[in-house]
């Protein structure tokens, strides 16, 4: 129930709208814009043609001809998010146009300066993040509710599938996000019945997220993901292909290093961890906390607010109620299952795909005859965010399981 539905209702202490969270869309941007104001036509023109410009190796020359545009005509959150989405996609294409062996050291001023300014306005880093790639990159294609992306990169239908399946996982989480607010309110009010119901809804939402994630197999080809898409999600921190980082011309003379896109930048799982009191190992926690810098500021504030809230786990323990304990454990178990399934996906799309790409390279004597692209090797054992992917995912899954309340 929304605060203000009835005169007798006291507002929830964790009102979602305070954190730019939507009752219908959760962390997704509710109504993303598809076009920027007219002065930004040169950006939109390049952005809409990115796959073709990158595959024909013409993007860098197009960017060099792009006028230096001021960001002062951008108004409001939606325009800023679309500008960030457009500039981040152009930046990834510019950096990785020639693959990991043809990287550049400097992002030109006409791209770097506006990207930096828009990033500062949103509190986001100047690189493609989950907030751009998924949360702000969707539109309704037709009245039937079919979805499409706004901006694309090489990868065709597999890229579209990867973005939209991830979006469906975020959408499936929405009842769970609402359940978080209800659970904290119930703890404060000592309302065990409402708390039990909220925990049931949370467990169900996490289960629905796992179901949504399974659709990845239907829409994303592992070879295309590994050989074509993945490099454009890679950053310039902890990446051997760009050990020094990137100079943002006109912003800083020193190179800067930012992590690439990562599922760890999704606020959803951070929020669930905080509510359920899940504690990860030191290294995993350090990486996850760094990933919070890649979230929109209000979403980060939501996670911090949850961290300060009364401990749900302590409340369940002290209640001695076996039904509450069982409902709590169902949430933890569903979260561990979701993380296990994420490991299954990563195994298929990275480990097995990497092994196949390696075998193909050996077969072709080091050359690569793939028409889809040359698979990157710098991040074979790492995620695009720069973490040692399997150590990290397994550690996080195992520490989630340890969050169960033992009888």
TrEMBL record:
For whether the record's keyword set contains Disulfide bond, the answer is no
Protein's UniProt keywords contain Heme = yes
- A GO BP annotation: immune system process
GO MF annotations, alphabetized: heme binding; indoleamine 2,3-dioxygenase activity; L-tryptophan 2,3-dioxygenase activity; metal ion binding
Protein keywords? Dioxygenase, Heme, Immunity, Iron, Metal-binding, Oxidoreductase, Tryptophan catabolism
This protein's GO cellular component annotations are: cytoplasm
Enumerate the residues binding heme b.
Answer: 342
PANTHER family, per the entry: INDOLEAMINE 2,3-DIOXYGENASE (PTHR28657), INDOLEAMINE 2,3-DIOXYGENASE 2 (PTHR28657:SF4)
User: What is stated as this protein's family in its record?
Assistant: Belongs to the indoleamine 2,3-dioxygenase family.
Official protein name in the record: I23O2 dioxygenase
């Amino acid at each position: 129930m929304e605060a203000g539905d009835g005169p007798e209702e006291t507002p929830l202490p964790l009102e979602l709208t305070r954190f730019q969270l939507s009752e219908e869309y959760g962390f997704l941007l509710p109504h993303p814009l598809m076009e920027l104001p007219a002065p930004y036509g040169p950006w939109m023109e390049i952005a809409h043609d990115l796959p073709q410009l990158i595959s024909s190796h013409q993007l860098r020359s197009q960017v060099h001809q792009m006028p230096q545009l001021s960001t002062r005509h951008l108004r409001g959150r939606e325009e800023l998010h679309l500008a960030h989405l457009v500039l981040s996609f152009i930046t990834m294409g510019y950096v990785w146009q020639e693959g990991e062996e043809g990287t550049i050291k400097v992002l030109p001023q006409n791209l770097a300066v506006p990207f930096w300014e828009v990033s500062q306005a949103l509190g986001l880093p100047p690189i493609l993040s989950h907030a751009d790639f998924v949360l702000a990159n969707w539109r309704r294609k037709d009245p039937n509710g079919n979805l499409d992306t706004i901006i694309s990169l090489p990868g065709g239908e597999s890229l579209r599938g990867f973005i939209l399946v991830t979006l469906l996982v975020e959408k499936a989480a929405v009842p769970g996000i609402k359940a978080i607010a209800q659970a904290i309110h119930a703890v404060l009010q000592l309302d065990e019945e409402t708390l039990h119901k909220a925990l049931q809804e949370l467990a169900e939402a996490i289960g629905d997220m796992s179901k949504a994630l399974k659709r990845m197999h239907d829409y994303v080809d592992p070879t295309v993901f590994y050989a074509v898409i993945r490099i454009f999600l890679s950053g310039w921190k902890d990446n051997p292909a760009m050990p020094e980082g990137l100079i943002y011309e006109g912003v800083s003379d020193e190179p800067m290093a930012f992590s690439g896109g990562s599922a760890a930048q999704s606020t959803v799982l951070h929020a669930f961890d905080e509510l359920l009191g899940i504690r990860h190992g030191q290294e995993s926690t350090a990486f996850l906390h760094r990933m919070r810098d890649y979230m929109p500021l209000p979403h980060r504030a939501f996670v911090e607010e949850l961290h300060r809230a009364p401990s749900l786990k302590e409340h369940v323990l002290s209640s001695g109620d076996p039904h509450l304990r069982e409902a709590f454990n169902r949430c933890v178990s569903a979260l561990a299952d979701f993380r296990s399934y994420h490991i299954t996906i990563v195994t298929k799309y990275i480990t097995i795909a990497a092994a196949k790409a390696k075998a193909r390279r050996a077969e072709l004597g080091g050359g690569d005859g793939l028409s889809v692209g040359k698979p990157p090797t710098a991040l074979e054992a790492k995620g695009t965010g720069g973490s040692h992917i399997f150590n990290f995912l397994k550690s996080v899954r195992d520490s989630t399981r340890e969050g169960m309340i033992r009888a």
